[in-house]
Amino acid sequence: MFYIGICDDEDFYRNDIKSKCEKYCKEIGIECTCLLFASAKQVMEYKGEKMLLLFLDIEMPGMSGVELLQKLESGKKVWRVVFATSHEESKIETVSIRTLGFEGKPAPYQNIGKYIEIAIKESGENVNVLIKVCGEEKIFALDDLDFAEAEGNYSTLVMGEKRILTDESLKEVEKKMFMTNVLRCHKSYLVNLGRIEEIVGDVITMNNGCKIPIGRTFKKKIMEDRKKFLVNLAMGRT
Question: Which of 20, 55, 76, 153 is most exposed, with the fewest beta carbons within 10 Å of its own?
């Protein structure tokens, strides 16, 4: 579950970003909750879960978005911020390690999706996805997944000793793993980089002992992404 904050003193823009965030998250199979704030003060008073992303208006009555950003630098309320502004001169003073970008109003749908993707990738937090099983959408934590295997027009999720047959094809499941550490290594398999024990030749050994083949066309990418994953893990970023 990810939490996305939207802080703007105008109802129209809050609801516009909310609908676009919810639509995009549903499209890629990610569970999210949008939190609406009408002022910077409301964000400061928020005591709930950490927000993956905060869409923040710069020009607001009382505390501005710029002032709020300065206060958020030392806190743990927000992972990344995207500013909504039509004032070019405000962009320079709002740049910080938490700033992903700047958007006009209303923000385009594709840009909203882009920022969500980046924030998810950078956060390295566990992701929950919705996958249909026996006609019902079930929530699965990707950290629990070892690998997924094609079963004709369906696919099986393997989590330790558990095997769960889904109603979705491997291609459909792969789409929901977008921007995560679950990657295709073979036409019939997806693997979780965090669950790989070792790679020897064209065979991946998972932590649960299962052996997964590597397809020739996927080998270069899986080796490169595995290396990046291990580097990020050593740096505490995954």
Answer: 76
For 1, counting Cβ atoms within 10 Å of its Cβ (0-12 exposed, 13-18 middle, 19+ buried), the class is: middle
Q: What is the pTM of this model?
A: 0.55
Condensed to tens digits (0 to 9), the pLDDT of residues 75-132 reads 578 888 898 876 554 444 445 556 778 888 899 999 999 999 888 876 755 567 889 9
Q: 92 and 144: one domain?
A: no
Order across the sheet with 51-57: list the strands.
Answer: 32-37, 2-7, 51-57, 78-84, 99-103
Q: Are residues 141 and 194 in the same domain?
A: yes
Strand order in the sheet with 211-213: 196-200, 203-206, 211-213
Q: By residue range, what is the domain housing residue 169?
A: 128-234
CA-to-CA distance for 178 and 223, rounded, in angstroms? 18
pLDDT for 232: 64
Is 130 within 8 Å of 144 (Cβ atoms)?
no
Q: What is the CATH number of the domain that holds 180?
A: 2.40.50.1020
108 preceded by a cis bond (ω within 30 of 0): no
d(CA 216, CA 211): 16
The continuous run of DSSP H or E covering 217 comes out as none
CB 66 within 8 A of CB 92: no
User: How many distinct structural domains can be found in the chain?
Assistant: 2
Predicted confidence at residue 25, as pLDDT, reads 92
The pLDDT tens digits of the residues spanning 59-80 come to: 889 988 888 887 775 557 888 8
Using alpha carbons only, give the angle 9, 12, 18 rounded to the nearest 5 degrees. 95
Peptide bond into 106 cis (omega under 30): yes
